[in-house]
Amino acid sequence: MKTYIGALALLSLIPLARAESGVSIFGTADIGLRSVKLGSSGSITTVTSNGLSTSKLGFKGEEALGGGSYAGFWLESGFLPDTGAMSDSTKFFNRRSTVSLGSARYGELRIGRDYTPTYSALSASGPFGDTGLGAISNIANVVSSGARTFTRADNQVAYFLPSMNGVTGAVAFALGEGVAGARYRGGNLGYAQGPMRLLVGVGRTAAVAGDFTQWIATGSYDLVAATLYGAYVRGTYRTNRQSTYQVAVGIPVGNGLVKASYTIGDMQGPTVAGAAVSDADDVKRIAIGYTYNLSKRTALYTTAVRLQNQGRSAFSLAAAPAGYFPGQSNTGFDVGIRHNF
After folding, report:
1. Residues facing 102 on adjacent strands
2. Structure confidence at residue 3 as a pLDDT band (50, 70, 90)
3. CA-CA 20 to 30 A from 137: which of 3, 178, 201, 304?
């Protein structure tokens, strides 16, 4: 009886502890059916994840320290609803694992695994964001440099500016700790006023045989009837450079959003060791999609894409099987459902 009473007493304290620490559980489950035709190698139809949003499970919390300052943590793990597997078997909290100190007046200091400031600029490139068949990172890449910091960086120390009349910004550096392609430094600066959003970013990663550098500029303008987007991404490694250009539009229709983007990946530079790139190795892609919101948390979506490789370019919309040749076109289509919780 004493044990039973003691257990009840402990359970009664749990809601109080959660309320004091402000801990919350959140996540997304996104699953769909996708069919992709990869040139002459044939078609692949799969049940897949992350067509609209990345599936994830997270825990976050914040504690007020007085004087407007706070401490917080954020732990977020990606998973694949179609199999139940982790999206990264080597890192449990592969999406984010940070502890932070901050205030509304002085900004925030954040340490751990997180998005790089350059990727934060990239993800604002259009209505598809950077997820699914319309993701801009399906084309923009690290130019065979081996850089591990295109999206996130381990062991990162970042500082975020406080909100200042629409101006935002962040700077970060990541300690490589002996891992090739993991040492990063970069930042971004943004401005938002009325219907206009602008965001630029620059980053440098110490890669295997030189530095991989990246410049990003994204912007949008809300016309109410439609939002227009533009993006430019340049990645450079040794004598090779990839310039990615994208224009896009998002058109609200009732409870839904019609999306379209046109993306060009322009490769420049002679072939060098470890980077099979030349001026002729370009790619073009057009993506059209529609999202219908059943509620604030649940949405249905569909996306159709056509991708055309040129020269020795061999981009693909899915894992390419044997017999897939450079210079071929891809077409893809998916339908799915996303639920936030």
Report:
1. 70, 108
2. very low
3. 178
